[in-house]
């Protein structure tokens, strides 16, 4: 039944997005975000005469015969994800603009739940420094609310305006409040003092060398890796003892720029864990990613003697997941002592 509902929602989203895309002569992704807001309002937004009044009337007839509130929220989310996946294919988006899969949000929540199990407050001020469509934060928050007392107050930065539009639309549909900032996340942040940074970091070279001059993780020559700079900037914007959870390439310590990154990690922050994500999530070993846990100095934080290293098991392997949770609990007891 649920799949039938998802298919029905997707069909409507796709039909109306395709119409709006044609009327506005824009990429599928751009039409999608505007279309979601139109569906919520059941009315077509017209700007500078586009779409035309006749085209808007055609869309309005469709919108007014479809009510998103008739469907479970998470069926709606799944249907929107399918349209985002279609946008990725139709628009041939860069790999750094692809949506973070639900499973990575679920696995991140598993680690967050243990780190913050004894945290003095249940709401974690959480920033995603490369929020994209917002799916990582939304899914991690959903999992935490299902199984723990924790919840995320969600904030996100991205330099891609159209990704932020999708994140805003998704948050609106799911009744999730997300504070969004359109800016270069390597540059100065407007706010700081977060409890947690959770980011699936874009991989590649950062083009503005002058912006990287004051970073310890900058390259000795040429362009620096954006994901290195983003980690350093993010960790400057958590409060003392604040946590950074970063999804990064598993070969991050094997590149030509790894030396400066490692030096920064052992002098400016505490590297508390390196956990490989399940290999089954990736098309090849070269595409594999890992989850790094970093902690800012101060407020009683200290470097654990043995950094937690290992493989996060596949969620289908129940016994392995139970053992992994036990391992996490033992690690967090030794690593994180939160001030009351």
TrEMBL record:
Keyword Methyltransferase present in the record's keywords: the answer is: yes
* Domain YtxK-like N-terminal helical residue range list: 8-87
What are the transmembrane regions? none
Q: Which GO terms describe its biological process?
A: methylation
Keyword line: Methyltransferase, Transferase
- Determine if Transmembrane helix is one of this entry's keywords: no
Molecular function GO terms recorded:
DNA binding; N-methyltransferase activity
Q: Where is the DNA methylase adenine-specific domain?
A: 110-309
Full protein name: Adenine-specific methyltransferase
Q: Which organism is it from?
A: Bombilactobacillus mellis
């Amino acid at each position: 039944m649920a799949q039938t509902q998802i298919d029905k929602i997707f069909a409507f989203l796709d039909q109306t997005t395709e119409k709006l895309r044609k009327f506005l002569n824009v990429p599928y992704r751009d039409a999608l975000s505007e279309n979601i807001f139109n569906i919520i309002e059941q009315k077509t937004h017209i700007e500078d005469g586009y779409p035309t009044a006749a085209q808007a009337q055609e869309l309005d007839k469709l919108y007014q015969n479809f009510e998103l509130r008739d469907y479970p929220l998470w069926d709606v989310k799944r249907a929107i994800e399918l349209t985002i996946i279609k946008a990725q294919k139709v628009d041939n988006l860069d790999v750094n603009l692809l949506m973070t899969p639900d499973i990575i949000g679920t696995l991140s929540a598993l680690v967050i739940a243990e780190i913050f199990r004894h945290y003095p407050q249940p709401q974690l001020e959480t920033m995603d420094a490369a929020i994209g469509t917002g799916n990582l934060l939304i899914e991690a928050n959903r999992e935490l609310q299902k199984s723990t007392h924790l919840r995320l107050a969600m904030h996100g930065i991205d330099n891609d305006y159209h990704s932020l539009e999708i994140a805003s639309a998704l948050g609106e549909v799911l009744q999730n409040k997300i504070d969004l900032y359109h800016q270069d996340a390597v540059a100065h942040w407007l706010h700081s003092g977060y409890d947690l940074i959770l980011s699936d970091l874009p991989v590649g070279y950062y083009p503005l060398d002058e912006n990287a001059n004051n970073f310890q993780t900058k390259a000795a020559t040429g362009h620096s890796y954006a994901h290195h700079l983003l980690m350093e900037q993010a960790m400057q914007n958590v409060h003392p003892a604040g946590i950074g959870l970063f999804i990064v390439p598993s070969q991050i310590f094997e590149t030509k720029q790894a030396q400066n990154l490692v030096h920064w990690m052992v002098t400016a922050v505490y590297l508390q864990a390196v956990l490989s994500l399940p290999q089954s999530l990736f098309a090849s070993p070269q595409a594999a990613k890992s989850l790094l846990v970093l902690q800012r100095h101060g407020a009683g934080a200290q470097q654990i003697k043995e950094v937690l290293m290992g493989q996060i098991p596949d969620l289908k392997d129940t016994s392995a997941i139970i053992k992994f949770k036990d391992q996490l609990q033992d690690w967090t007891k030794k690593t994180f002592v939160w001030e009351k």
